[in-house]
Amino acid sequence: xxxxxxxxxxxxxxxxxxxxxxxxxxxxxxxxxxxxxxxxxxxxxxxxxxxxxxxxxxxxxxxxxxxxxxxxxxxxxxxxxxxxxxxxxxxxxxxxxxxxxxxxxxxxxxxxxxxxxxxxxxxxxxxxxxxxxxxxxxxxxxxxxxxxxxxxxxxxxxxxxxxxxxxxxxxxxxxxxxxxxxxxxxxxxxxxxxxxxxxxxxxxxxxxxxxxxxxxxxxxxxxxxxxxxxxxxxxxxxxxxxxxxxxxxxxxxxxxxxxxxxxxxxxxxxxxxxxxxxxxxxxxxxxxxxxxxxxxxxxxxxxxxxxxxxxxxxxxxxxxxxxxxxxxxxxxxxxxxxxxxxxxxxxxxxxxxxxxxxxxxxxxxxxxxxxxxxxxxxxxxxxxxxxxxxxxxxxxxxxxxxxxxxxxxxxxxx
Length: 414
Description:
Elements: E1 6-14, H1 21-30, E2 36-37, E3 50-51, H2 65-70, H3 73-89, E4 101-106, H4 112-123, H5 135-139, H6 143-152, E5 158-161, H7 167-180, E6 186-193, H8 198-206, E7 236-244, H9 245-250, E8 257-266, H10 279-292, E9 301-303, H11 312-324, E10 332-334, H12 337-340, H13 347-361, E11 363-364, E12 389-390, E13 395-402, E14 406-413
Parallel strand pairs: 4-5, 4-6, 9-10, 9-13
Antiparallel strand pairs: 1-7, 1-8, 2-3, 6-7, 8-14, 11-12, 13-14
GO biological process, one term: fatty acid biosynthetic process
Catalytic activity: (9Z)-hexadecenoyl-[ACP] + malonyl-[ACP] + H(+) = 3-oxo-(11Z)-octadecenoyl-[ACP] + holo-[ACP] + CO2; a fatty acyl-[ACP] + malonyl-[ACP] + H(+) = a 3-oxoacyl-[ACP] + holo-[ACP] + CO2
Pathway: Lipid metabolism; fatty acid biosynthesis
C-alpha cells in the first residue's frame, strides 16, 4: 500500500510544570519538580500526602461557570490542551473539510472526582437518589474527546483509547494509522487525566504503588535510583496535532517533526507488574522501529516509561539493552516523570511532546533526583541524570506501559 507520511504541526499542554508548552519545556530542561503537598483535598490521614498538581489552576480563566459545572476536571484539561495545540498549528477550520478532522483522546480513568462526589453524596444522604443530571456525561472517559470535537466542529473519526497509562500513546498510534491509510487529514490526538482525588490517591496507596516521601516531595520521583519507593501521581492534559504531510505542506504549516512509526502489544503476564524478562517492551520497540522503517542504531533518545517503581525501572532498561544491543550505550535515556509525576492516561502524550521538542531543539531533558544507581542496572547506560544534555536528536522514541500489560511505543524523527 502507498501509505501517507504523517507529521506533527501543533502542541498543547497543561500539566504540573506549566499551563502551556513554553512553560512546560522551560521547566523540563531546567529540571524542575512539579511535586508538592496535595491541595485538592485533605490528605492528612493518607500515607501519601503529596502529588504533582497543576499549579494555580482557576477554571474560570478558561470556561464560564455554567460550562465548569458540566465538565469533570479531566475534560477541562483536555479542552485547554487542545485549544493551545490547534492555535499553535495555525489550522483554519473555515478552510478545512471538518469531516476529515478527527479526535482520538486517551484517558485511563476519566471523571474519577465526579464519580466519587456523586457516590459519596448518595451514601451520606437519606437514601433518596438525587444525582446530578450531568453525572454520567461528566464521568465517562470518552467525554473529553467528544467535547473537543463539539467545541471545534470536527466531524471525523472520534473515540477514546483506554489502556491505563498507555492510553494517550495508543491514541497517537491510532492517529498515525488513520492518517497513513487516508481516512483523515488531521487528528487531534492526546490525553488528559485528573486522578488526584480521594479514591485515586487512596487506591494507589493501598497498592503501595506511590511514594510516601512526605518529608521531601520534590525528590520523591526518582526513577532508577536505588532508594525509589514508588511513583508520584500527576494530572493534566497534552495534545498533538497529527497531520498528513502533503496536507500540512499545502497549507504552509510549520512542522515540528515526523511521526514516523508506532506499535502496540501486550505482556499478557500480570495485572500490574511488567514482564520481568522485558519481552513485551523489547518487542514493542523493535516493532515500532520496523513500522517507521528505521534501525536500532538510528535512535538517539528514548523517553522511557520510568515511573520510579521497583519492578518497572529494572525491566525497561533490560528491554532496551535486549532491543538495541551495543547501541544501547550510545543512547540518551531519560524519564520526565521525575519532574511531571505520572499523568496516567495522559503520560504518553505529554512524553511525546517532550520527544518532539527534544528532536526540534537537540536537547535531552534530564532524569532528576538521582543519587544512587539501582545495583540491578548497568552503569554504562546514559540515563541523563540530573542535568539536560545537548546532542543532535534525529530520532526519539517514547515508551508507555499500562496496568494490564498494555505496551505502546511511538517514534518521532526530524
